Amino acid sequence: MKITILGCGGSGGVPLVGGDDGQGNWGICDPLEQKNQRTRSSIVIELNNGKRILIDSGPDIRTQLLREKIGRVDAVIYSHAHADHIAGLDELRSINRVLGKALPIYATKDTLSELKSRFAYAFKPWKTQPYFFRPVLDVHQIDYYDNFMIENQSIQTCEQIHGFCKSMGIRCGDVAYCTDVVRIPEQGLKILSNLDLFIVGCFQRNEHPAHAWIGKVLEWKKIIKPKRTILTHMGPDMDWNWLKANLPPDIEVAYDGLILYSS
Ligand SMILES: [Zn+2]
């Protein structure tokens, strides 16, 4: 399968809005390094049968899909309901138009209830409108530690602690996408064994109450022993060249548009 990193930035992206000249606050990231320019975190998994699963639809989803020339997705899985992962939900009506039907989405009870309160109109039934003037969703409630199928692909989820709330880790074949997580319970770590690709949120260099940091990722890597570890959901102190120079060589650093493959 083919995995496209649509975005690998933290909740405000890199740069953050601001900066002395109004052109953005880059933190310690080098503005001249293109790989430091990060939109909000999301990935697309293209299965071997050509079907595509989107994980999260953040506020940058429209430009991300256009940039990567991805004109159709077949399902969406939501990791959790924070704005940087859901705020682009309205853009999915374009996908409705491409598919000609309601778009299947998969999320936990808590995430669905948050989505319903923010985007109530997207959950109304689709009757016979000739055209999608709003997103229309085909809702699938799932739970942590569920195993289910999307487009003939088995998906396994796990519970993640994200500071004051929970998020969901997603394993698809030998690829796992675990972002917005500071603690993975024992059961989840077992689910993450024998991975080809461990795509993991790593917001900053040092400890954080809601997000993993470099030391935490190294700890998980030691336990689950993935073939490759790729950092995503990075904030403004994660300069790409600094990371390349200072991380162990078997830790890779994502950038927007990075494409990865797993058999
Ligand atoms: Zn986030």
From TrEMBL:
SMART domains per UniProt? Lactamase_B
Residue ranges of every copy of the Metallo-beta-lactamase domain listed in the record: 39-233
Keyword annotations: Hydrolase
Which GO molecular-function terms appear in the entry? hydrolase activity
InterPro entries according to UniProt: Metallo-B-lactamas (IPR001279), RibonucZ/Hydroxyglut_hydro (IPR036866)
- Pfam families with a match to the protein in the record: Lactamase_B_2
Q: Which PANTHER family match?
A: HYDROLASE C777.06C-RELATED, HYDROLASE C777.06C-RELATED-RELATED
Q: What is this protein called?
A: MBL fold metallo-hydrolase
Q: Which organism is it from?
A: Commensalibacter melissae
